[in-house]
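User: Please fill in residues for this 154-position structure.
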């Protein structure tokens, strides 16, 4: 799992964070992903999410605050920067599947964080605590099951 490796290998230096564009939606907090199954995997990180499902950026930070990975996307292209390397993908879905070992509903995540329902086959999001800065989404299909937990500043 590329992101878990990036989080484990990140240096301790605290890089400056890019200034936020006030015209773009943004969220920050902590997220955790757990993928069940024969090869169970999990990771957690602090995050900053900016933009939209069409064009955006997700930065993941180690417990010490250094950048572990940065995902950027736009129509027809997505880039993952981690461990001093840059990998290119055709879509954010392809990038998330390669980086985490399972496809993630990143487009729906923007809706869920805003407290709006978004249907994603196989996923069920619990939006009951979004106003308190908590979101849980579970995937039952396709297998293996996965759970995404997000704590953010509402």
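Assistant: Residues filled in for all 154 positions:
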């Amino acid at each position: 799992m590329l992101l878990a490796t990036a989080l484990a290998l990140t240096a301790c230096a605290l890089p400056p964070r890019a200034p936020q564009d006030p015209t773009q939606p943004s969220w920050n907090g902590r997220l955790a992903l757990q993928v069940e199954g024969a090869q169970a995997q999990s990771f957690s990180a602090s995050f900053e999410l900016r933009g939209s499902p069409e064009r955006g950026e997700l930065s993941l930070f180690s417990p010490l605050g250094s950048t572990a990975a940065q995902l950027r996307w736009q129509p027809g292209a997505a880039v993952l920067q981690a461990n001093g390397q840059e990998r290119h993908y055709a879509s954010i879905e392809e990038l998330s599947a390669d980086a985490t070992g399972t496809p993630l509903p990143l487009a729906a995540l923007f809706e869920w964080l805003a407290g709006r329902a978004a249907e994603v086959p196989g996923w069920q999001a619990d939006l009951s605590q979004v106003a308190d800065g908590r979101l849980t989404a579970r995937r039952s299909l396709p297998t293996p099951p996965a759970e995404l937990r997000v704590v953010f500043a509402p």
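For context: The CA atoms of residues 132 and 154 lie 7 Å apart.
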